[in-house]
């Protein structure tokens, strides 16, 4: 049975400092999940296109995506 990557987070929160020992199985499952994404060519292309789009917008406006997505205050 495959573990959900969220299981690693829960295990770490529940185990405290002993997480290194207690969460080995969950950590391995998380690594497998991440490796699957890192080696997927379609996911790589999707991330690349998103990055290039954000870079183009930054070069055009000079405003980073993080700042651009923040909402302006309604009362000034």
TrEMBL record:
Keywords: Disulfide bond, Mitochondrion. One of its GO terms (cellular component) is mitochondrion. It is found in: Mitochondrion. Belongs to the CMC family. PANTHER family: COX ASSEMBLY MITOCHONDRIAL PROTEIN, COX ASSEMBLY MITOCHONDRIAL PROTEIN HOMOLOG. This is COX assembly mitochondrial protein. The lineage of its organism: Eukaryota, Metazoa, Chordata, Craniata, Vertebrata. The gene is CMC1.
């Amino acid at each position: 049975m495959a573990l959900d990557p969220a299981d690693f987070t829960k295990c770490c929160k529940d185990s405290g400092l002993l997480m290194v020992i207690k969460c080995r199985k969950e950590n391995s499952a998380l690594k497998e999940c991440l490796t699957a994404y890192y080696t997927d060519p379609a996911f790589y292309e999707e991330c690349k296109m998103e990055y290039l789009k954000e870079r183009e917008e930054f070069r055009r406006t000079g405003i980073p995506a993080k700042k651009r997505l923040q909402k302006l205050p309604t009362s000034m």
